[in-house]
Design a protein that fits this description.
The protein is mainly α. 75% of the residues lie in helices and 2% in strands. The protein is built from 13 helices and two strands. The protein has a two-stranded antiparallel ribbon with strand order 1-2. The relative contact order is 0.21.
C-alpha cells in the first residue's frame, strides 16, 4: 500500500516539475506581451489532443463545471503565469507560486473536509518559510505587478484544483484534463482577440517552446496532477507542489544565470525539507500495525439455527 502511494506521489510530482520549467521557457523563448494568446496557444491544442484520445464530451452539469474549473485552473492561471514569467526571475516566479501548498491545505480542509495531518501543516509552513528566505538578501529586485499576478494565479489554481477534487471523483483524470483545458482556453480566446489582436508571430525557438509546454507542461502535467488529486489528500498534493520552485530555481540559476546566494540555498533546502516532511506518513510500530489489522477484521457473529445449534457468521 505504501509503495502504491509513493507511486502516486511520484506521478503527481511530474506536474510541479514541468510547471516549474515553464517560467524559464516563457521568459527565454516565448513572445513577450502576449499573455492572453500565450495561454490559448499553450492550452487549446493540448486540450484538443487529449480529447482526441479520450473521445468523451461533458454531460449535464459538467458543461458549466468544466467552464468554471477551466477558468480557474487553465484560463486565469496560465494567463497570469505568463505575466509572472515575463516580469519576475524564473526562480522567484516559481517560488512565489509554491505558496499554493498552504492555500490547498486550507481549502481542502474547508471545502473537502480533509483535516490535514500535523506533518502536512509543518511541511507547508517550512516550505513557505523557505520561500520568504529565498526572497530575502541576494534576490533580484521584485516587480510588484509580477508578485500580484503570482498571488492571483496561486489563489485561482488552488481553488480550482480543490473544486476539481470535490466534483470530479467519477471523471477520469485524462478526461478532466481535456475538458478543463478546452473550456479554459475558450474563455480566454475572445479576450485575446479583442485585447491583443492577431496571434503573435512565432519564430523557431518560440515554436519549440510552445511544443514543449503544450505536450509536457500542459497535457501530461495536468493529467498527472488530476490523477494525484483523485488518489491523494489535497494537503499532500499541495506539499508536492513545492517541487515547482525547486525546478524554477535550478533552471534559473544554471541556465539563466540568476543570482543564487546563501539565502537562496537555505530557502531551497527549507522548501525541500518541507516537501519531505509533508508527504511522509507517521511510522507505526510493528505490534501496533498487527493490532490495527486485527481490529480491522470484524468479529464473527453467532446465531442459532432451527435445530438450536450455534453457528458462526
Amino acid at each position: 500500500m505504501e509503495d502504491k502511494r509513493m507511486r502516486w506521489i511520484l506521478l503527481t510530482a511530474i506536474a510541479p516539475v514541468a510547471w516549474g520549467s515553464t517560467y524559464y521557457v516563457t521568459r527565454q523563448v516565448l513572445p513577450p506581451d502576449a499573455a492572453l494568446w500565450g495561454g490559448v496557444i499553450r492550452c487549446l491544442p493540448a486540450g484538443l489532443l487529449v480529447l482526441l484520445i479520450v473521445r468523451r464530451l461533458p454531460r449535464g452539469s459538467w458543461w458549466w463545471r468544466s467552464f468554471v474549473l477551466g477558468t480557474l485552473t487553465v484560463g486565469g492561471l496560465n494567463v497570469l503565469v505568463y505575466i509572472v514569467a515575463q516580469r519576475l526571475p524564473t526562480s522567484l516566479a516559481a517560488t512565489l507560486m509554491s505558496t499554493s501548498a498552504a492555500a490547498m491545505l486550507l481549502l481542502s480542509w474547508l471545502i473537502l473536509r480533509q483535516r490535514p495531518r500535523a506533518a502536512a501543516i509543518v511541511g507547508a509552513v517550512i516550505g513557505i518559510v523557505g520561500v520568504v528566505v529565498m526572497m530575502g538578501p541576494g534576490a533580484e529586485p521584485v516587480d510588484p505587478w509580477g508578485v500580484a499576478a503570482s498571488i492571483g494565479a496561486m489563489l485561482s489554481s488552488s481553488l480550482g484544483f480543490v473544486l476539481t477534487a470535490k466534483w470530479g471523483a467519477a471523471v477520469p483524470p485524462v478526461t478532466m484534463t481535456a475538458w478543463q483545458l478546452i473550456a479554459g482556453s475558450l474563455v480566454v480566446l475572445p479576450f485575446a482577440l479583442v485585447v491583443e489582436g492577431a496571434p503573435p508571430a512565432l519564430d523557431a525557438p518560440a515554436l519549440a517552446g510552445f511544443a514543449y509546454v503544450i505536450l509536457i507542461a500542459t497535457a501530461l502535467a495536468y493529467a498527472a496532477w488530476f490523477a494525484g488529486l483523485r488518489r491523494l489528500p489535497g494537503s499532500v498534493v499541495g506539499v508536492v507542489g513545492l517541487l515547482n520552485p525547486v525546478t524554477g530555481v535550478v533552471l534559473g540559476v544554471f541556465l539563466a544565470g540568476e543570482a543564487f546566494g546563501l539565502a537562496q540555498v537555505v530557502g531551497l533546502l527549507l522548501v525541500l525539507g518541507g516537501v519531505v516532511i509533508g508527504i511522509l506518513r507517521p511510522l507505526v510500530p510493528r505490534h501496533r500495525r498487527s493490532e490495527l489489522r486485527t481490529d480491522a477484521v470484524p468479529a464473527p457473529h453467532s446465531r442459532r439455527n432451527s435445530a438450536g445449534v450455534e453457528e458462526m457468521s
